[in-house]
Amino acid sequence: MEKLEVKSSTHEYKIMIGEGVRYTLHQYLTKKYSSILIITDDKVAKLHLDAVKESLANEKVYVSIIPAGEQSKNIDVFYQLHTDAIQYGLDRQSLVIALGGGVVGDLAGFVAATYMRGIDFIQVPTTILAHDSSVGGKVAINHELGKNMIGNFNSPVAVIYDVETLSTLSDIEIRSGYAELVKEALISNESTFNQLMNIRLNEISKDELKKHLSFGIKVKAKIVEEDENESGVRKYLNLGHTLGHAIEAELSYGKLTHGEAVAIGLLFALYVSNKEFEVDLPLESLLTWFKNNDYPLDIRECTSKKLVERMKSDKKATNKKIQMVLLEKVGKPTVKDFDDEVIDSYLQSFMEKVIR
Ligand SMILES: NC(=O)c1ccc[n+]([C@@H]2O[C@H](COP(=O)([O-])OP(=O)(O)OC[C@H]3O[C@@H](n4cnc5c(N)ncnc54)[C@H](O)[C@@H]3O)[C@@H](O)[C@H]2O)c1
Ligand SMILES: O=C(O)C(=O)C[C@@H](O)[C@H](O)[C@H](O)COP(=O)(O)O
Ligand SMILES: [Zn+2]
């Protein structure tokens, strides 16, 4: 079992990473709660809800199950979860447990942040991608016009990561999660990036996976401790997301997974970095790695004009200037503002020449 600690502006919380920790969840309740609401999705409920409920056998537990997938991260599901919480009689001494991937984590975390102006919540991530979403306290729902547009910073009181749950993930979800791990390597560590470029996702061992998750969580934890509210270095965690989020919204959420959209965004960030800084980042190696691991790279149904419009309302933008995270070299991220026309021209040539 690996134990890490993260300091947020309001409290310090533990991240427990290990096999079978979902069976001992009760040990990590930091106080006696009046009741507990487990929020999960219908896929995860079938696989992992019983174990979590068993471990909370001595608590007053309620469950709300949402439909699996990105489209649930919306205002209607958010409102329904508040209705559930009121009807179950949750009070200010209640706890929310987010059992699932990043969708459940972001949504349940935002419900916890807003219910009666805020109650405690615990993240119990069940996807590879959620090594990223469960740490750092960004909680949100999507708006039709933009990804994660309605949200807050609200750190969990604990993160209980049972890596055993990851054995039921589909290939799509494995590749989605690895896109964020590649991102973390690109912004921090060239040798980890090179190691990742030498693996095949359908051949990863459990030990390799644990090593990668631990790496990703440490990168994330260090950054969010330094800049929780994203006024500086936290922006680096958004590498690949300016375009990635635009693609997700343009495709009405769920056609590509978050990680798949970020993967395309990472390629674009490397492409623009090469042009802007006249450097030779490993764009070709990354493209080959994505192709070898079956990442979908076809976004022909999106036009560069519409994507640029979406990028202008990204959260990093000020006065509609598009801000992108770029790399001067692997491990050296930076941010740069652009006029629309420049990004439009880069995006057109990227779509024609790189991912065609
Ligand atoms: N808050 C943050 O810092 C942050 C960081 C990264 C991503 N995100 C958000 O996270 C979301 C993506 O998260 P995700 O990829 O985990 O998506 P997800 O929660 O939709 O999970 C992906 C799919 O895997 C299924 N699943 C979950 N656990 C499973 C398991 N153990 N076995 C089998 N199937 C399982 C789910 O039911 C779903 O169908 C996006 O909304 C993204 O914006 C947030
Ligand atoms: O934690 C962060 O900060 C990140 O940027 C991590 C991203 O992987 C994540 O997708 C995040 O939700 C994006 O944040 P947003 O502020 O651009 O919505
Ligand atoms: Zn992300």
From TrEMBL:
Keywords: Amino-acid biosynthesis, Aromatic amino acid biosynthesis, Cobalt, Cytoplasm, Lyase, Metal-binding, NAD, Nucleotide-binding, Zinc
Catalytic activity: 7-phospho-2-dehydro-3-deoxy-D-arabino-heptonate = 3-dehydroquinate + phosphate
Source organism (scientific name): Oceanobacillus caeni
PANTHER family: 3-DEHYDROQUINATE SYNTHASE (PTHR43622), 3-DEHYDROQUINATE SYNTHASE, CHLOROPLASTIC (PTHR43622:SF7)
Recorded metabolic or biological pathway in which this protein acts: Metabolic intermediate biosynthesis; chorismate biosynthesis; chorismate from D-erythrose 4-phosphate and phosphoenolpyruvate: step 2/7
Protein encoded by which gene: aroB
Known role: Catalyzes the conversion of 3-deoxy-D-arabino-heptulosonate 7-phosphate (DAHP) to dehydroquinate (DHQ).
Residues covered by the 3-dehydroquinate synthase C-terminal domain: 177-317
InterPro entries in UniProt: Dehydroquinate_synthase, DHQ_synth_AroB, DHQ_synth_fam, DHQS/DOIS_N, DHQS_C
Enzyme class: lyase
Cofactor(s) the protein needs: NAD(+); Co(2+); Zn(2+)
Protein name: 3-dehydroquinate synthase
